[in-house]
Amino acid sequence: MIVSSSSKFRLLDCPELWRYRHLLVMLVIRDVVGKYRQSVLGVAWAIILPLTQTATVVLTLGKIADLGPSGHKYGLFVFIALVPWNYFTRALQNSGQSLLNNQTLLTKVYFPRLILPLSGVIAALLDFAICLAILVAWLMISSTGLSPRLLAIPVIILYTSFVAISLGLWTTTLSIKYRDIAFILPACIQLGLFITPVMFSLDKLAVDQRSFFWLNPLCSVVEAFRWAILPDYPTPPLRFVLVSITATAVVLLSGLVLFRRMETTIVDII
Amino acid sequence: MTDTVIDVCNLGKQYNLGLVHEDLFVNNVIRSAKAFFKRTQSAQPFWALKDISFSVEHGEIIGIIGKNGAGKSTLLKILSRITLPSEGHFQLRGRLASLLEVGTGFHPELTGRENVYLNGTILGMSRQEVKSKFDEIVAFSGVEKFIDTPVKRYSSGMHVRLAFSVAAHLDPDILLIDEVLAVGDYEFQRKCLGKMEEVGKGGRTILFVSHNISTISSLCPKCMLLSKGRIVKIGKTSEVIDLYYQRGEAADGEVDYERDKIERGDDEAKLLSARLVNLNGDVTTDFKIDESIRVEMTYRLLTDNLNISLWFHFYTSQGDCAFVASDGPLDPEGALKNTAGTYLSVCHIPKNFMNDGTYFIGLAVSKTGTLTTHVLERDLLMLRIVDPIVNTATRAKYTGFLPGGVRPALQWESKKLS
Q1: Less Cβ around it within 10 Å: N or C end of chain A?
Q2: Helix, strand, or coil (residue A162)
Q3: Which of helix, strand or coil describes residue B15?
């Protein structure tokens, strides 16, 4: 193997990532186990959190205004959206702080740096899987029933992961140089909750206002997820989904270029 | 086909000194803009390594020595691919593992077992590999009983032992080790070194950075001396170490700040010089175990009625404090040093008091009864105590290694009781 100051730039080195798959797995295990160990309720927190959030929204906003779509229970409507939304925020937080949180690893040992944001996103999957399992169990018990649309969920969640890691790559790379990101990121996530139709239905907006909301990739995620769970939920308009996918692809690609350019000198700056 | 496993060619690493990275975003933009228009260099470039070329054959064990800041760690960081060189290139054959720290990535909430797997994969082992060596690793560490306890409940000793055991069972073709053997208890370190040596004979190539010259000379047949980012010499370890001492780069038997026009101290007391002197009045670093040692310091007091205490700190080459010596009532003239002026104070170390080995001596001039210091210098002087072993008063004809910072000849008495 030759290492040179003028090594050629490669966007992705898949064989190398594959060689380090054991490390990826162990880092995911570390994140998940480290998080829940010594908490009495353990992974139950994964479901308690969105339930509390839903209850709060229903008991406050739900009492003030009629924000949900007609024909659906508001609580269920909110909860279903919170499942992918919480996954997205956790994945973004994990990957966005992955380089800073693992400084000792970065400065003491070599591995493809991409493993860190990747492991952050994957570690967030556990909470999501638990919520999804509960949701599906509920569907089976209730009168709603299972629809074949459920099969689209892996695709939707893969897309959500791409959105999270594309933004995560940008934030984690920038946070190496500018620690301000640590303050900006939570604020942005909070704002994001208001421009994503989690607590309100797009039906309640004027038609010309809706397209603005669709520019947000998370809007597609949330609407598609509801569509997959609820048999009679309207299909998200394809043109908006395509816009969202294109935007994500651009952010992902540019984030990857930025990350790969910085990763060789991260240790000198951090 | 040659047997070269590491081939380094014109390697250099540049850092920009004075560039503050925690800077405001706005300032960075302004600076970049200025640099762009004026075409001026905004930061001072500094070469941590320059023109490094060497090659290592299969199975060689090479020590790397040099002062702090000579570039030793930077070199290992580049070879282990943690950072990229600024110029030049290098080629590696075979699997490489770097050990720049013991227990990298240990997570306090995880159990010993989980951490062995985590640390093992971080150091480049596959899960199967860790699994196959797991029992051996745990047995070696001696913490079997606590292997399913979170490591946050471990004592620091257990922590280090477990971490070391993982490291000692690494089996790469090339191993880079940086200074890691400076922690942990001495016995266990020797055990690890033994284990590494054992595996090393199986044809492993090792690059080894250490401040501990005795470890380097016992472990590495070949050695590289770095100074200011350049290679001074690569060759037989004994020759390179001699050169290291000749160049006076290692701590020495004498430091003369007055002669070198260096100011050390505050505006009340200044250190002028310090030295080790033998019975003949010669300044030296090397003493036989049955020689007495004069440890001298000269200093200047700038004000009257300065109530000071003098300290010498003796550290072993493993970094443990052997003992601390302070002046006090035992110095009959000590009370005289309360007016401004230049003084000489001497600490006498009797013969047959120190253990054999290398010591680093620091000193302090403090306000009596407080921790406030006028002067505080670490690793100022180096002292080597040589034990000829034959006719040594303090080893009872035993010729092996004896631990401890001191090995004093004390008064004993025996009588027959029945």
Answers
A1: N
A2: helix
A3: strand
A8 near B CB under 8 A: no
Chain B partners within 8 Å of A106 (Cβ): 82
Cα B353 from Cα B409, distance rounded (Å) = 6
d(CA A48, CA A41): 9
First-to-final CA distance of chain A: 27
DSSP-assigned beta bridge partners for residue B4: B57
Beta bridge partners of A181: none
Overall average pLDDT of the B397-416 stretch: 88
Q: Which long-range contacts (CB under 8 A, 24 or more apart) does A69-73 make?
A: A69/A201, A69/A203, A70/A203, A71/A232, A72/A230, A72/A233
Burial-class residue A42 by CB neighbours within 10 Å (0-12, 13-18, 19+): exposed
Q: Specify the pLDDT at position A55.
A: 93
Give the pLDDT confidence of B165-222 residue by residue, as tens digits.
Answer: 888 888 888 888 886 655 555 567 667 777 776 766 667 888 988 766 767 777 788 9
Q: Does B105 touch chain A (CB under 8 A)?
A: yes
B-chain residues near A264 (CB < 8 A): 83-84
Residue B125: its chain A contacts at CB < 8 A?
A: 22
Segments making up each domain of chain A, as ranges: 43-269
Q: How far is B127 from chain A (nearest CA, A)?
A: 6
Whether A105 and B105 lie within 8 Å, measured CB to CB: yes
Chain A residues 194-253 with a CB less than 8 Å from chain B: none
For B233-270, b where at least 16 C-beta lie within 10 A, e where not — what string?
bbeebeebbebbbeeebbbbbbbebbeeeeebbeebbb
